[in-house]
Amino acid sequence: MHNNIIAIVGGGQAAAMAAVALRQQGFDGEIHLFSNEPHLPYERPPLSKAMLLDDAPQLQPVLSTDWWRDNNVQLHLGVTVRTLGRQTHELALADGQTYPWDRLLIATGASARPFPLLDTLGDRCFTLRHAGDATRLREALSPGQSFAIVGAGTIGLELAASATQRGCQVTVIELATTVMGRNAPLPIQRYLAARHQQAGVHLILNNAIEQVFEGERLTLTLQSGEQLQVDSVIYGIGIIANDGLAREAGLDVANGIIIDTSCTTADPNIFAAGDVAVQRLPDGTLQRCESWENANNQAQTAAAAMLELPLPTLPPPWFWTDQFNDNLQFVGDMCGENWVVRGNPDDGKAIWFQLRDEALIGAVALNNGREVRVLRKLIQSGRAVNEEALRDPTVALKSL
């Protein structure tokens, strides 16, 4: 057994922030990070926005080159890990090299769930998970081009907004009866649907593609019988966890590596974090949280667990989306149905609140980013809050 060597497999947010957390929490041994991408670990959220819209887009590294050097973290970029070496505690790479480890973190992320009917279209079909996907899609987003976007989740709507802002004609096709149905409450679903329609996006809900005919343009036949002609299609219909290495190593997987609250897998020396991980809840159900913040939180938790330190206390869940000129930030519980609002969403600025037993349990801020810190504190406190005060824009939230 080699002493004080931690290997991180993955090159995204969770992988990078785990390296940060290990150094911050006092680990002074060797850290090796292995990524199959040639880039320094980079931020994923800009891929659907800035990377498509900026005049001269650049990847945004999670950490600078200097940080990796100054903190003595060994980067192995553009490499493929073949086996984890669960028994031998040695990673094996495709080029034959091996690297020892004492603790191992898997943060390999996820891939776009395939859509076989569309995957046959080759260059006229797009998904978005990595920098190369964004580069390829940006080249296709020419003014006047028409796109069908399959899936009206967060990524689908962000892409619809970016493509529209690039001067493209956009139709969004969604199997469900609403947009962002998995993670946004009803008032925000309604707001976003109206916002996209006002910008010229054609929304087709409760429908799906049944046939595709390739000609000069693509002809899509929907379940309803409607036909659309477009130049290209983009789809985002969920993810497939990159858990193949874990599966081959005999770890427990279920479209993701199963972890406990400490991010520990079935092997006490192997941990997982980010989109590749699914956490077993106390009731036995499995939950994955696909967000930038969850990757950061699980990186902190995994680092503490690897070092046998107390686990951090986590704040209420938080994620955001930028669509057109709107920034929406979601804090806390999104599952309830009783929402009240402060301000007028039609004026481009509002906050929706959800109360339970007079306590604030969830909030969505529309172009109110400065209030998010206060909202998180209010939710975490669990204290009773006056509903009328929440509704009243003349009452400072901080005073509550």
Give the SSE map:
Layout: E1 5-9, H1 13-24, E2 30-35, H2 50-53, H3 65-70, E3 73-77, E4 81-83, E5 90-93, E6 98-100, E7 103-106, E8 110-112, H4 116-119, E9 125-126, H5 131-140, E10 146-150, H6 154-165, E11 169-173, H7 186-198, E12 202-204, E13 209-214, E14 218-222, E15 227-230, E16 232-235, E17 239-241, H8 244-248, E18 257-259, E19 270-272, E20 277-280, E21 286-287, H9 292-306, E22 318-323, E23 326-332, E24 339-344, E25 349-356, E26 359-366, H10 372-381, H11 387-391
Parallel strand pairs: 1-2, 1-7, 2-3, 7-19, 9-16, 10-11, 10-16, 11-12, 18-20
Antiparallel strand pairs: 4-5, 5-6, 8-17, 13-14, 14-15, 20-21, 22-23, 23-26, 24-25, 25-26
How would you describe what is shown here?
By secondary structure, the chain is α/β, with parallel strands linked by helices. 24% of the residues lie in helices and 29% in strands. It contains 11 helices and 26 strands. It has helices spanning 13-24, 50-53, 65-70, 116-119, 131-140, 154-165, 186-198, 244-248, 292-306, 372-381, 387-391; strands at 5-9, 30-35, 73-77, 81-83, 90-93, 98-100, 103-106, 110-112, 125-126, 146-150, 169-173, 202-204, 209-214, 218-222, 227-230, 232-235, 239-241, 257-259, 270-272, 277-280, 286-287, 318-323, 326-332, 339-344, 349-356, 359-366. The strands form 7 sheets. It has a 5-stranded parallel beta sheet. It has a 5-stranded parallel beta sheet with strand order 9-16-10-11-12. A hairpin with a 4-residue loop joins strand 14 (218-222) and strand 15 (227-230). Helix 1 (13-24) crosses helix 9. The model has no long low-confidence stretch (mean pLDDT 95).
